[in-house]
Amino acid sequence: MGGRVGEWAGTAKWFQEMKLITCPLNGPRNASEFICGGPVKAAPPPDAPDRDWADYLFLEDNPAGRVREWWCHLPSSYWFIVERDTLTEEILDTYPADRLVGGAAS
Amino acid sequence: MPLNLLWRGLRPGINRRRWLPDTPALKRRYDVVIIGGGAHGLAAAYYLATRHGVKDIAVIERGWLGGGNTARNTAIIRSNYLTPEGVEFYDLSVKLYRGLARETGINLMYTERGHLTLAHTDAALRTARWRAEVNQHMGVDSRLVYPDEIARLCPQLDLSDRPHLPIMGALYHPPGAIARHDAVAWGYAHGAARAGVEIHQGTEVTGIDVAGGKVQGVKTSRGRIGCDAVIQAVAGSSSRVAALAGFKLPIKTIPLQACVSQPLKPFLDPIIVSSSLHAYVSQSSRGELVMGGAVDPYPLYKQRSSLDFMERLVADILELFPFLGSVRMMRQWAGIADMTPDFSPVMGPTPVEGYYLDAGWGTWGFKASPAAGLTMAELVATGRTPEVIRPFGLDRFSNLRQVGEKAAASVGH
Question: Is there a single domain that holds both residue B211 and residue B332?
Answer without folding.
Answer: no
